[in-house]
Design goal:
Blueprint: H1 17-64, H2 75-85, H3 93-108, H4 121-132, H5 134-137, E1 140-141, E2 148-149, H6 152-159, H7 161-167, H8 170-175, H9 187-199, H10 206-221, H11 226-231, H12 235-242, H13 253-273, H14 280-296
Antiparallel strand pairs: 1-2
Helix pairs in contact: 1-2, 1-3, 1-9, 2-3, 2-4, 3-4, 4-14, 6-7, 9-12, 10-12, 10-13, 13-14
């Protein structure tokens, strides 16, 4: 008997990596359309810069490595889209392009390509840009008016949760009428895409559920507004589209739940006591580093297997 072992992501189904990648892009379309409506030309420039650079970088590196082109498998496209959704709408095109190059060349291809990267490429690129261009990466604008503003989480960090809750409404956060990154503003658009992926069983419910539930529980314990924390920032985008990345998240049911809980704990630690208003990016990256460990744990009793 001959066993064939391939690189991750490992999918026990007849579906292909290409189909999964494009389904995720389709699931992101409501959020993409919402961000283009709210931020218009600046948003289009950011999307174009990240996607074009990601595709070109992927093609050139595969050519230099003398490997068959993978630019059409959808992974580079998805990385470009997700990176754009993690950037402010005012991000200059050249900064967006630098981040996209870093995501593909350093975080993905330097580790061997799809299935070999340790960290989520889009989030690692966002962290790199935040360290390199902190002013550009923390300048926010209001939807439609494009006036400089603070995000609800930024208000919470500097003026307290009561002032933050008064600065916006749940409806505004739900629809997307608040400042933030391109993919952060509309909770409704993200939920539509996330539920679409769960219905198709492209992503597992455990990571988003544990991530969001942990955030809500910690917010309640420390007297914070649970719904405010769930609707604002990059929590929903991270829970449904970033933390569920096949390559950088655990494959076991219990491992997924521990991963989601860990992301929720770190997110709230940073939000409540850290220097940054938001902690989703760093929480997922830190848990990415623990994924190999979570996969190797021999769970004595996994009661969460379907």
């Amino acid at each position: 008997m001959i066993f064939q072992v391939s690189l991750s992501p490992h999918i026990r189904a007849t579906t292909t990596v290409k189909r999964i990648m494009f389904l995720v892009v389709i699931a992101l379309m409501p959020a993409i359309c919402a961000s283009l409506y709210f931020f218009q030309i600046p948003a289009l420039i950011v999307y174009t810069s990240t996607i074009f650079t990601a595709l070109i970088t992927e093609a050139l590196i595969m050519l230099l490595r003398r490997r068959s082109a993978t630019v059409f498998d959808g992974s580079a496209l998805l990385t470009g889209v997700l990176l754009a959704m993690n950037l402010p709408p005012s991000t200059p095109w050249w900064v967006a392009s630098i981040g996209s190059f870093f995501a593909i060349a350093i975080v993905k291809q330097a580790f061997g390509g799809l299935g070999m990267n340790i960290f989520n490429p889009a989030l690692a690129a966002r962290a790199f840009l935040l360290a390199s261009y902190p002013m550009l990466m923390t300048t926010w604008h209001s939807p439609l008016t494009f006036l400089t503003t603070a995000t609800p989480l930024g208000v919470a960090k500097h003026d307290g949760i009561a002032a933050a809750v008064q600065s916006t409404t749940y409806l505004n956060s739900f629809l997307g009428l608040t400042g933030g990154s391109l993919g952060e503003t509309s909770a409704l658009a993200i939920l539509i895409g996330g539920l679409f992926l769960m219905l198709l069983r492209i992503i597992d419910w455990r990571i988003p559920f544990c991530f969001l539930t942990t955030v809500a529980i910690i917010a309640g314990i420390f007297g914070q507004d649970m719904l405010f924390h769930l609707l604002n920032g990059g929590l929903l985008l991270g829970a449904f589209f970033m933390a569920t990345d096949y390559v950088t998240s655990p494959i076991t049911p219990a491992g997924k739940m521990v991963f989601g809980i860990g992301c929720g704990i770190i997110t709230m630690v940073i939000r409540l006591w850290g220097g940054y208003p938001e902690g989703v990016c760093y929480s997922i990256l830190l848990m990415n580093a623990l994924t190999p460990f979570l996969d190797k744990i021999r769970w004595q009793r996994d009661v969460f297997i379907e």
